[in-house]
Amino acid sequence: MLPLKHQMRWRGGAVDRQAGGLRGVNRRVECKAWSGRSGVSERDCTLLEAAAKLSESASGVTQPHPNMACILVSPDGRTLAEAYQRAQGTTSAEVQAVSAAGPSARGATAYLNLESGDCHGEAAAVDALVRGGVSRVVVGLRHPLRHLRSRAIGMLRAAGVRVDVLADELAVGRNGLTSAAAAAAALAGGGGAGGGSDDDVAAAAAASYLAMSACLAANEALLHRAVLRRPLGVLKYAMTLDGKIATNMGHSAWVSSPQSRALVFEMRARSDAVIVGGNTVRRDNPRLTTRREGGHTPARIVMSRTLDLPEDANLWDVTLAPTIVLTQRGARTRFQAALRSSGVEVVEFDFLTPESVADYCQERGFLQCFWECGGTLAAPTIASGVVHKVMAFVAPKIIGGMRAPTPVGELGFVEMTQAVELVDTNWSQVGPDLMITGYMPSSGGLWALEATLEAADEETAADAAAATSVHLPAAAAPPPPASPTPGAAAAAAAAAASGKKAAAAADGSAGGPSIAAKRRRGPGGPQGRSVAFYKAWDQWGALSNFSPHPITMPVELPLPSASPATDGDAAEERAASGGATSSSGGGGAAAAAAGAAATRRWPSVEHYYQAHKFSGGHHPDAAAVMEAIAAAPSPEEAARIGRRTERTRPELLRRDWATAKVAFMQAALRAKFSTHAGPRAMLLATAGVTAAAAASNGVAPPEAAPPPPGGGGGDGGAVCYELVEASPHDYYWGAGYERTGQNKLGRLLMQVRDELLEEANAVACSADHAWQLNGPLAAQAAASAAAPASRG
């Protein structure tokens, strides 16, 4: 995305999906001359590059997430504060930096490698910059995710803050540019059109190229997910100088050097999952761990259609790391049961392919998958386009052997012209080995991905400029209105015809069931009227338990005696109402009485929930586990401690947890949405309630969620959307991969939403009732519900 004087062509930009082949597609790049005059100076570029590198400080330490950092610089050039976001659901870099700088932040410049947007529905980062008095913000990249893209920039500009975006300054057109061509253009400069010397212009262009490259590289996984709708797939292999990955007998330990293997362990830690096939499990019996204490532990995924796998494989030991087995429906059902009993997750597909695995990983919210498979599986992953990057090691060894395996199996090519060409390749020496990395045609490289996003900006620029709030989801175009039920249409007509009836509807006295009495639909709901949420950075992310919203809860009393665990929804509903156990965790009178004496602040709903698995004081070690969870620096780390302890030390689990857990979750959700305006406004938006309407009823302050553009009355009927936690692996709190789960979290959120609506004297929107509300907001919710949740 550096400006060029002339148009140029390049190959290998993308897969021609229409033709179903792997051949590269030629692209034409529209360019402009580099003038050297820009809102982003050479000094700015240097600081952006530093911010990009700082943002990767947590890579390998926590689960992959959008990498963000903030550097605050005073008007006289002093660095006031530096911060990066540690993990999903943690304090944003902007909030940390402004807090560290204190009053010195006033008049400062903030350098962000990525546009603010750590949680959809929360504007704490933008608020911190504005309230701190930051006068200028320099952004490397606009956020790749559509529901966050340009929102924070618009909010900052609306607040009077100057915002300069490097990606905008360097834009060269619709179709992308290889980094090699961009580097050549930058280093060549463009003459002294800006009034400076050729050397000055060239230096500025080179600095901008380096800064842009660093910003792109810091979030390469997020870019791939946003554009390609799949996690970044990295294929890794190590081969000898003659192209072998093992001997004729299958022995492969070790092809590469210890230095190369250390890099592989680091890449595993930077990934959400490590994927292998059945052949690798049978031949190598790997552990696929990161070989280090602490840090992120990726999931280990095994692909096997037949489940012809050894029963004593190292991967079945889930105390080291979680293991997921993906297979075809009906394969070795007894072995599946044995794996599940040992803690291995087993997922069945109608037909197991690399595409189905990549889609499954996308559903799980993964950003990066590390494919460490053999040649038999590597070939279809390349052919199907689920691999976007190659990380290959060449060892200075020769093994020979006509039947010795090679890194990639049969692709069906008969001519050298059919060979798959990589772009943006890099070569480096690692110990005695040579490491080569490059992007596949399925990716096209980071510059091409960013250009694709810029091209899409032209279609959504008007919406992005107008919708200056990140609190509510945006829709490019409202879908056709759903056909109302006869009862809903009648209620709407009656409300329009009679002021008295409309007033009665407003206070809920018009007759018919209230929202709380409404019978819930299953996950998905009729006519696709559902809103799905999962990761904090996904659309509707503020609904997630991992969102960065602390809660203050009563300190619970010790558990006086064991409570009998019963099965079924009835027991859980009794627990949720505080009547199932003597100490139901925040929902009952005992917890309320305890809260009158003492309270405790928890960093997130997930922290509170995971810790209280071990509450009650029935075991001396349980209190230490609770404290470890409370001190966890992120919700994901709190969840990891809680789940691992539940699996490895079940005696520490609260004795009535089977029934009490719903009450704990419900109490935490009530606290979160009662305390935080952003999530509350988002939750009410799923019922068609505008922020202005909510504020007028005392539910949310006006600044929490400004009404959509064109606010005011509308003739669109509002609909209460089904809330679905789209976790593909959780069939209790979530909907599960096949959407057959119980969706307990979604149901509890709908109950909390009902309570908030009743507090606001809003009318029920059950099958027989509807109200007239703001049309654009109803369209926004409908547009989101008509399609799967936006996850990049």
Automatic annotation (TrEMBL):
Q: Where is this region: Disordered?
A: 505-530, 555-590
The entry lists its GO molecular-function terms as:
5-amino-6-(5-phosphoribosylamino)uracil reductase activity; diaminohydroxyphosphoribosylaminopyrimidine deaminase activity; NADP binding
Q: Which UniProt keywords apply?
A: Multifunctional enzyme, NADP, Oxidoreductase
CDD domains for the chain: NADAR
Q: Which Pfam families does this entry report, sorted A to Z?
A: NADAR, RibD_C
Q: What EC class is this?
A: oxidoreductase
Q: Where is the composition biased (Low complexity)?
A: 505-516
The answer to keyword NADP applying to this record is yes
Listed pathway(s)? Cofactor biosynthesis; riboflavin biosynthesis; 5-amino-6-(D-ribitylamino)uracil from GTP: step 3/4
Task: Using the record's annotation, list all stretches that form the CMP/dCMP-type deaminase domain.
Answer: 42-164
Q: Which GO terms describe its biological process?
A: riboflavin biosynthetic process
- Its EC number(s): 1.1.1.193
Write down what this protein is called: 5-amino-6-(5-phosphoribosylamino)uracil reductase
Source species, please? Pleodorina starrii
